[in-house]
Structure formats: structure tokens, C-alpha cells
Write a structure and sequence with these properties.
The complex is a heterodimer of chains A (330) and B (539). Helices cover 59% and strands 4% of the residues of chain A. By secondary structure, chain A is mainly α. Chain A has a two-stranded antiparallel ribbon with strand order 1-2. Chain B has 2 domains: 168 residues, Fumarate Reductase Iron-sulfur Protein, Chain B, domain 2; 310 residues, no CATH class. Classes of the chains: A mainly alpha (330), B mainly alpha (539).
């Protein structure tokens, strides 16, 4: 049900462009105003969310340790899974952020006769997630060719690598194929797997459908419905240099693409997509397990009522004396 | 075990397919076997906690204060501002589902709300409704949910169906820690008087008498004296075990079950053997006669109140540093909370083994050393004479306790000690040990009789891994270094893997240790003769 609602929401967004551009001719609204508003939302929202998290204190150092601690010198400790220094934490975070280390551990649990509980390595989610995020990132970087003149060398290099397996024309980017496959996989697993369906919210389907639609419109423009790339680049550079112009003849497909991207980035800070920022702030991962070596301070360390030894001895002095136990006050 | 207890093969009929109806519309099945009794008013009052009263989770009316909703929401607001964890974990979950089948309670029950993601969603849905714009405007469409009495009951049911073991946190791509979420949930529940007795009464006991069991000082002295006498009977050696001795070099803190329950007690005898043999100058304390800290399962304040005794007592007795015994959650508190809450312990010295001269640099702030770190260092430096064959009656496996594994990472030290003390050691499968270890099913205050069905369900993954090595290698003892494990694993083994005993790591040390002056017919810590040393009478 949530999947259908989310899909309908994305269709409504597309219909808005068709009406706005095709019907009312609101080129400036969709080409300039909405993208600017979206970017303001994104930047302000992102900064606000991160600052809000950062402002909340970390009262306790509660690292989740996934390997041997640093203790005796002859016991080999696992610095990346159980970091003892800030530098190792950076290593752990890099593994996490760049390669989804924790997700790589994923197992699948099954019950067999016996009775037996069986666990097997299950890396499909890791692979799908990694493929999706990396291809998305590379595609975003590639898009800078539209915002820059001349196009910086590193973007051309990325494009070359991305089209490495290409023979003939037009150039097909590997990431275009990968992102379509990966997002489809992520959508399908939410729909087909009954457990995933059970836990999925609208907020899980909506961004997937949004991104899928963005990718489909992008791929369509690049490989099938030839669009006016010169005009699009003029618009993009205009936006980036704060001299917005909307050249004629760009075509409605581009505006759908641009509008969905605008919605995505405006929606970003208010959604689970903020895991992009949050992963860096997760105290179980971004702190060293060095509590016994280095004191951690809780800024609001509460005053609590203690039960002192004196009170204890006062209550139990008689029985302690009878048992021959040492006393502070005779 | 109650008569209505299901047979293992019936309990194993578990369906992982969630029901057709959505989780927000499904009510929990609150019944005996799946709940823990409410805290008795006396304990709640003793700790000055709110709303002491007689009530039962099986009643319809839970006798909440009139303004309970206001209290909970205010409590949430406060915690959002005080804990970055709470805020970040409420905001960033993408419901990828990686945690779903990592929870022992889910594996053993199939109840979808035991998937860590949904346990957390119970709080998140209310968080969205009350603290986010989308939730306020769009309600259920945005995954938001009103806080009603039914929702509160569901919180109680499921936050006391989580043992705070942190296994899901290992698999979560963002490290979202359900233990932290459960801790927040339990703190909130306590604000309106929803407490369970097996958490709150031990806290009240510990606050008053120094240990969870409520043993008064003379009782503590008796227990230690009894163990000393018992040890003499077993080995012929009279050991010193001082209590509240000022000026001792080391304060030794153990979980109270070590001197009060089986099979913990055999580990206590093991400590006694070890400390006697190396001539350690140490003392027990009756005031700090508890290493465990059920405050961890209640609230950060309760944890701090109980934990304070360790440093206060170390200062009063004038010791140089502290050793801690075999206990799981105790070591989470010591490793991750003690210094922050009740430090700095600048009146203590950086721990240095008086026997080997090793300085425990890894404990230079907190000044407390794990007994397995201490013993491993002794063995490595060849200070102990160990006869492995004295454990030949055992085919041993080792259960990593959740907190030492995932909130500390003490993984190799106990293995080194065990392998130095026995000839037959077998690891359980790799997805069930070390950082991926499974809970015993009774942690975080859930090890009660009334909760037996959930314990057997939650303990299934652990027990099943033991069954694997039992069937394959004939393993007959499950060693561990956690007092809750030792208390709840015997029932779990009897249910799923009959024939496997539970033992302490230092029980093996006590057995293997060749002691000066031991009698010819000394036995192991359980009073059994060593293999090959049986007299005609024993055979």
C-alpha cells in the first residue's frame, strides 16, 4: 500500500510539470525559481539538522566494539573494528562510509529440521546498496560537466572510466545501467520480501521512486529522446553563476528531470536521506573504545543520591560488629 | 518451569512471515511466559522513584498517573536534548532490514516487533508524531502514531523483551544501537511507574546492602567464610580472603551471584585458588559487594547511584587499584560508564601486577582490570603451574557474553586462559561467537521464571550453537564469564541441549592450578576427583 501511495506521489509530481510547462508555460518557475528554492531548502535544512545533532551532547562513550580490544601488548588487537585511537576511528569510519563495512557482515537466518538455526552470508543488500550509492555519486560528479566551462579534467577522466567497457557509439555509461538495476533491486526487495514490506513506510518508497524516475528521465534524455544539450548547459551555468536564463526549446523531459531533482534535494534534509550526514555522527561508530585509558566527560553528569559507606555502617553496625568485621566507628 | 511450558519441538515451530495486518494495528500478546512481574511498591519507594503501587501487566488498568502522557512526552523532549544517540537513532534509520533477523528474540519468536528495526519504530513513530513537522502534518502517512495507553503498553512489553545485547548494532550500517533505544524506552517507562521487579528490586537491594541479592554484611562475611572452609575441604589449603581490609593493595569486586549461586561459586573458588597461589594482597568489600549493576537496565541515574560504591570504597579502603570478576554487563558499566559517571579515580594508581610487573596501560584512567586480563598476564609470564589434564573431564566451549564482546572487546584473553587450562576446547560456529555472539536470553533483567517462554525462545540461537558442538565434538561444558549467563544458561541447556553444564572461566583455572601444599586427593572445584585420580570408592 505504502509503495502505491509513494508511486502516486511521484506521478503527481510529474503531472505538475506537464501542467506547468506543457500547459501554462511556466519555464522560469520550473527552470529557475524551484531549483533555487530547493537548493536553499537543502543547504539550510542540511546545516540545521547537522547542527541540531552536533549540539546534542554525547554523555557516554558507547562504542560498539566488533573485534579484540587493545589490552595486553602481546594480544593482537583489531584497530579497525575496535579502534583505540582517533586515527583508527577515521579508518573505521572510512570503511563504513566508503565500503559499508557493517552491511558486509550481513547474514541470513533460516530454520532447518534438527532443530537447526542456520546462518549464511548474505551480501545482496550490501552489493545493491554499494552499487546504488557509488553509481549515484559518480553520476552526480559527471553532471558537473553541465555546470562548468571548460570542463575540468577530472570529470573527463571519470567519464572515460565510466564508459570503459564501451565499444561504438553512443557512449553508454556503466553507472547509468548500474543505478537503474540497483534502485530496481532496492524497490523490489521492499515489495517482494514480506518482512521488508512489513517494515517499509511511505518514506522508504518515495525517495526510491523519486530517484528511479530521475534516473529514467536522465537515461531517456541521454540515449533516446535527444534533447538540446547546449541549451541545458546554458541554463545550468546560468543557475550556477546567478545569471539565470531559460533558453527555448529544451523540452519537457528535461523539466521533469530537473523538477524531480529539485524535489529530492528539498526533501532530503527532512527525511531519512539524512543518514548521509548522520552516519558520521553515530556515537557507537565514531568514538574510540578507549574509555579505560582516557576519561570521557558528560557535560550534564547528574547529581544523584548516593548511599555512603557511613550510612551503610550506621544501619548495619551491630551485625557487622557481631560478625567481627572491621568498623570505621566503633 | 510452569506446566504449560511448550516442548522444544513445539517451540521451534516459528514462522518468520509477518501477519497481514500492519504493525500499528497489531496488539501485543501480553501473557504469562512473555512478561515480567511489576516492581513491588517497597522497592520503588526505597529508590524515590515515581508512582509506587501494586499492579500487574496482566491487569487491564495499569494505574498510570493522570498526566502520564505529558510526563512521557516531556521525558522524550529532555532526552532528545541530552543524548545525541537518541536523536540520531530516531532520525537516520532507513529501515534497510539488516538488523531484522539478528535479534535472538526475533529468531526464537518470529514476532515482527522483535526485529530491532520495529522495536525502535515503536519509539520513532511517537517521536515523528510529536517532534517532527511531517509527522504532525501527515500522521500515519509519515509513519507517525499517537501515544496512547495501548502504545505505552506495547513499549513496556517490547522494551522488556530486549536484553540490550547490541548484536543488531554490529550489523547496522549506521551503528544504531537498540540497547540505547531500549534504555531510553525504559527510562521513560520508569517516569510513570512502569518498572519490573527483577530490575528495580535488585537495584533497591544493592543501594541498601551493597549487592543485588540484599545480602547484609554479616551474610556476605558468612558466604566468604563458607567458601574458604569449602576450599580447605576440597584442596587441603587454608586461603585468606579478607573482607573490608584497609590498606590492601587491590580491591576485588565480583558479581554477588559468585558467592551465592551455582555454578558461579566454582568460579569464586577458582579466584581464591589463584589469589592464594600468587600471594595477592587483596580485599573484598561488603559495601561494594556487587560488580553487576542492574541500574544499567533501568536508567543512567540508577546506574550511577549503584556504581558510585566501587570508587568510594576503593578510596575508603585506601587500595591502589581494582580487579573485577567475571560478569558481563558489569564490564559494560566499568568500561563505558564508570569513569564518566563517578571518576576521576585520581586517588588510585595505574594498575600494575605485583606478580609480573606488567602495567595495565589500557586501564590507566579507570584503574580497573578484568580478571581475565590479569590471569592471562600471569599465565603469559609463566607465573602459574597449570595442569591441563585436570580439566580432562570437560570438553569445553566458550560463550562470549554480549557486553564484554560488544561493549569492550575482551575476546582473546578468556580464550587464552581457557586454552592454557584445558586440553579439549571447541569453538562454536563463527556467526555465534565473538562480536556476533548471541545473548543467553535472560540479560538486562529478563532472567525471571515468569518470562520463561521468552527466555527459551531468546536463548534458542545460543543453545542451538551449543547443540552443534555438543553433537559434533561431545562438548559438555559451556564456559562463560558473566553472572547472568551462569544463572540463566543452565535452564536453557536443560531445555534445548540436555547434558551440557555451565561453568566459569576461573573454575577451569582453579581446577588446573597446581597449588603448593595441596592434599594428595584434592578434587576439582565441584568436589569431583580428577580423571585418573579416582579412588576405588569413587569408581
Amino acid at each position: 500500500m505504502n509503495a502505491i501511495y509513494s508511486l502516486i506521489a511521484v506521478f503527481i509530481l510529474i503531472a505538475l510539470v506537464l501542467l506547468g510547462i506543457g500547459g501554462a508555460g511556466l519555464y522560469y518557475v520550473f527552470g529557475v525559481i524551484i531549483p533555487y528554492v530547493a537548493i536553499v531548502f537543502f543547504l539550510a535544512g542540511f546545516v540545521y539538522r547537522v547542527l541540531k545533532w552536533a549540539k546534542a551532547p554525547v554523555p557516554f562513550r558507547i562504542t560498539t566494539t566488533c573485534g579484540q580490544q587493545k589490552s595486553l601488548p602481546w594480544i593482537k588487537n583489531n584497530e579497525l573494528e575496535n579502534p583505540s585511537t582517533g586515527l583508527s576511528v577515521i579508518g573505521r569510519m572510512l570503511l563504513e562510509v566508503l565500503f559499508f563495512r557493517s552491511l558486509f557482515r550481513n547474514t541470513k537466518t533460516e530454520l532447518k529440521d534438527g532443530p537447526k538455526v542456520v546462518y549464511s552470508l548474505n551480501n545482496w543488500l550490501w552489493l545493491g546498496g554499494l552499487a546504488f550509492h557509488w553509481s549515484f555519486l559518480i553520476i552526480i560528479v559527471r553532471h558537473f560537466r553541465f555546470f562548468t566551462e571548460p570542463v575540468p579534467a577530472f570529470i573527463s577522466i571519470i567519464e572515460k572510466l565510466d564508459s570503459f567497457f564501451q565499444v561504438g557509439l553512443p557512449i553508454i555509461y556503466a553507472t547509468d545501467a548500474i543505478i537503474l538495476a540497483a534502485v530496481s533491486f532496492l524497490v523490489l526487495r521492499r515489495i517482494m520480501d514480506s518482512r521488508m514490506r512489513y517494515i517499509s513506510l511511505n518514506a522508504d518508497f518515495f525517495p526510491l521512486f523519486l530517484i528511479l524516475s530521475i534516473a529514467v528521465t536522465g537515461v531517456w534524455m541521454r540515449y533516446f529522446g535527444k534533447v538540446d544539450v547546449i541549451g541545458i548547459k546554458e541554463l545550468a551555468i546560468g543557475l550556477f553563476t546567478f545569471n539565470p536564463v531559460v533558453p527555448e526549446g529544451i523540452g519537457v523531459f528535461f523539466f521533469i528531470h530537473l523538477f524531480l531533482v529539485s524535489v529530492l534535494i528539498a526533501y532530503f534534509p527532512f527525511s531519512k536521506l539524512m543518514h548521509m550526514g548522520g552516519v558520521f555522527l553515530s556515537p557507537t561508530r565514531n568514538l574510540a573504545n578507549n574509555n579505560r585509558m582516557k576519561r570521557h566527560i558528560n557535560p550534564w553528569n547528574p547529581k544523584v543520591k548516593f548511599h555512603t559507606y557511613e550510612e551503610y555502617e550506621d544501619e548495619f553496625r551491630e551485625v557487622m560488629r557481631d560478625a567481627g568485621m572491621p568498623l570505621d566507628k566503633k | 518451569m510452569p506446566e504449560d511450558q511448550m516442548k522444544p519441538e513445539e517451540l521451534f515451530q516459528i514462522d518468520y512471515k509477518p501477519p497481514g495486518k500492519g504493525w500499528m494495528e497489531t496488539k501485543p500478546d501480553i501473557r504469562r511466559g512473555k512478561i515480567n512481574w511489576a516492581a513491588v511498591p517497597k522497592s520503588v519507594e526505597y529508590l524515590d522513584l515515581p508512582n509506587p503501587r501494586k499492579w500487574s501487566p496482566l491487569d487491564k488498568d495499569w494505574k498510570l498517573p493522570d498526566n502520564w502522557k505529558e510526563i512521557i512526552l516531556e521525558g522524550m523532549r529532555e532526552r532528545i536534548h541530552k543524548f545525541r544517540t537518541f536523536q540520531v537513532f530516531m532520525d537516520i534509520c532507513v529501515r534497510c532490514g539488516a538488523c531484522a533477523d539478528k535479534c535472538h528474540f526475533f529468531i526464537g519468536s518470529g514476532d515482527p516487533k522483535n526485529m530491532p528495526v520495529l522495536r525502535a519504530e515503536l519509539l520513532r513513530a511517537v517521536y515523528r508524531k510529536e517532534f517532527t513537522l511531517a509527522g504532525k502534518l501527515m500522521g500515519k502517512m509519515a509513519g507517525a502514531r499517537d501515544l496512547t495507553e495501548d502504545v505505552l503498553k506495547e513499549w513496556f512489553f517490547y522494551f522488556f523483551q530486549c536484553t540490550e545485547c547490541r548484536r543488531c548494532s554490529v550489523f547496522c550500517p549506521y551503528g544504531i544501537d537498540t540497547a540505547e533505544i531500549t534504555m531510553m524506552g525504559r527510562e521513560l517507562l520508569s517516569l510513570v511507574g512502569l518498572e519490573i521487579d527483577w530490575v528495580t528490586t535488585p537495584i533497591a537491594n544493592c543501594f541498601r546492602t551493597g549487592n543485588h541479592l540484599g545480602i547484609q554484611p554479616h551474610g556476605f562475611q558468612d558466604s566468604i567464610d563458607f567458601a574458604v572452609d569449602d576450599f580447605k575441604d576440597l584442596t587441603g589449603i587454608k586461603v585468606e580472603a579478607p573482607v573490608n581490609k584497609k590498606g590492601a593493595e587491590i580491591l576485588f569486586i565480583v558479581p554477588s551471584a559468585d558467592y551465592f549461586a551455582d555454578p558461579h561459586y566454582y568460579g569464586l573458588l577458582g579466584y581464591m585458588a589463584l589469589f592464594h597461589e600468587i600471594g595477592l594482597d587483596y580485599t573484598y568489600s561488603s559495601y561494594a559487594s556487587e560488580g553487576g549493576n542492574f541500574g544499567l537496565f533501568h536508567s543512567n541515574q540508577a546506574m550511577k547511584r549503584l556504581n558510585s560504591k566501587i570508587y568510594m570504597e576503593a578510596e575508603r579502603l585506601g587500595v591502589k587499584w581494582i580487579i573485577g570478576g567475571e560478569c558481563g554487563h558489569m564490564w559494560r558499566v566499568i568500561n563505558q560508564y564508570m569513569d564518566t559517571m563517578n571518576g576521576p579515580a585520581d586517588f588510585l594508581e595505574v594498575p600494575k601486577s605485583p606478580i609480573t610487573g606488567t602495567v595495565f596501560e589500557n586501564t590507566k584512567a579507570t584503574k580497573m582490570v578484568h580478571i581475565c586480563e590479569f590471569t592471562a598476564d600471569l599465565i603469559k609470564n609463566d607465573k602459574l603451574k597449570l595442569d591441563k589434564s585436570r580439566n580432562d573431564q570437560w570438553r569445553v566451549t566458550f560463550h562470549d557474553s554480549c557486553n564484554p564482546a560488544r561493549a569492550m572487546g575482551i575476546i582473546e584473553e578468556p580464550r587464552y586462559v581457557i586454552n592454557s587450562c584445558c586440553n579439549h576446547f571447541f569453538e562454536m560456529p563463527e556467526n555465534c561467537i565473538k562480536e556476533q555472539t548471541f545473548c543467553c536470553g535472560g540479560g538486562a533483567g529478563l532472567g525471571t521464571d515468569e518470562n520463561m517462554e521468552m527466555r527459551m525462545r531468546g536463548g534458542l540461537p545460543r543453545a542451538n550453537a551449543v547443540k552443534y558442538v555438543h553433537d559434533k565434538y561431545g562438548v559438555n561444558v559451556l564456559t562463560c564469564m558473566c553472572a547472568i549467563d551462569k544463572a540463566v544458561l543452565p535452564a536453557l541447556m536443560d531445555y534445548w541441549v540436555p547434558g551440557v553444564q555451565v561453568g566459569a572461566v576461573h573454575e577451569l583455572v582453579g581446577n588446573a592450578l597446581v597449588m603448593k601444599g595441596e592434599k594428595e586427593d584434592r578434587t576439582d572445584m565441584r568436589g569431583e576427583p580428577f580423571i585418573g585420580k579416582e579412588t576405588a570408592k569413587d569408581v
